[in-house]
């Protein structure tokens, strides 16, 4: 796939387009499944100001949005973090989640165990490598799914009541990471209703009811409900790339 994600923010005085390629590698590859470049323009006259590494920005901004959702939706006494998947997004989520939150235990599971072992070895703290997704999920307070799964790998029967899940993978309308039981018995928060109802297989195929957009929870127009089992379905929005790219460019410019 080749995706084109243009966005303009009058508030931030920023205009960008992200070009992202997505290749579903049938076999393990040293080439990432997602590769991206962000073009930053001068919104006053359309001049190209910078080319930025969209892969790095995508990884960082996706994890940052998950962290915002987690801060609002996770249970008050969250101690156990579980990450399903060991790709780029697993690393970025681990970095920001262990920086912002005080988890006492971190677990990881990946379909290819060698990648999970490699992840644990590279982590800044102790990470338990689990032999199954069910083992990793059992009793976890916060779960992050960042896989290339096309059928569910996380089941409601496994999930601790009151846990918070960040569902980041399964970005196609016919792909799933979460099963119907979990989707239909959670408080579902999305980044964009419009996107979730056209792009997310987890939402479309389960016919789960969307409770709120994350922006509504941030602004307080919808309650957070951290005492409930919550799911944040993340698909990513072009405006996130725009704001992040402007921030990176201004930081770089200040350094020069």
From TrEMBL:
Q: Which GO terms describe its cellular component?
A: cytoplasm
Coiled-coil parts of chain: none
Q: What InterPro entries does the record point to? A: NAD(P)-bd_dom_sf (IPR036291), ODC_Mu_crystall (IPR003462), ODC_N (IPR023401)
Q: Which GO terms describe its molecular function?
A: pyrroline-2-carboxylate reductase activity; thiomorpholine-carboxylate dehydrogenase activity; thyroid hormone binding
Which top-rank group of organisms is this from?
A: Eukaryota
Give the EC number: 1.5.1.1, 1.5.1.25
The entry sums up its family as follows: Belongs to the ornithine cyclodeaminase/mu-crystallin family.
Assembly and interaction partners: Homodimer. Binds the thyroid hormone triiodothyronine (T3); T3 binding inhibits enzymatic activity.
Report what the protein is called.
Ketimine reductase mu-crystallin
């Amino acid at each position: 796939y080749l995706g084109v994600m243009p966005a303009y923010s009058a508030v931030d005085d920023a205009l960008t387009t992200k070009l992202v390629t997505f290749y579903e590698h049938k076999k393990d590859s040293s080439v990432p499944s997602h590769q991206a470049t962000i073009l930053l323009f001068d919104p006053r006259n359309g001049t190209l100001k910078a080319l930025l590494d969209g892969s790095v920005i995508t990884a960082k901004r996706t994890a940052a949005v998950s962290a915002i959702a987690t801060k609002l939706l996770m249970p008050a006494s969250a101690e156990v973090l579980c990450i399903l998947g060991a790709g780029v997004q697993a690393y970025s989520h681990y970095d920001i989640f262990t920086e912002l939150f005080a988890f006492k235990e971190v677990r990881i599971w990946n379909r290819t165990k060698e990648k999970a072992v490699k992840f644990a070895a590279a982590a800044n703290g102790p990470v338990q490598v689990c032999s199954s997704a069910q083992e990793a999920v059992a009793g976890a307070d916060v779960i992050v799914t960042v896989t290339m799964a096309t059928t569910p790998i996380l089941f409601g029967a496994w999930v601790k009541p009151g846990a918070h899940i960040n569902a980041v993978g399964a970005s196609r309308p016919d792909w799933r990471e979460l099963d119907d039981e979990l989707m239909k018995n959670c408080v579902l928060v999305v980044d964009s209703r419009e996107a979730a109802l056209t792009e997310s297989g987890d939402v479309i195929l389960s016919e789960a009811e969307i409770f709120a957009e994350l922006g509504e929870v941030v602004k307080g127009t919808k309650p957070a409900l951290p005492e409930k089992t919550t799911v944040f379905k993340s698909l990513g929005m072009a405006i996130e790339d725009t704001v992040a790219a402007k921030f990176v460019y201004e930081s770089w410019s200040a350094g020069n």
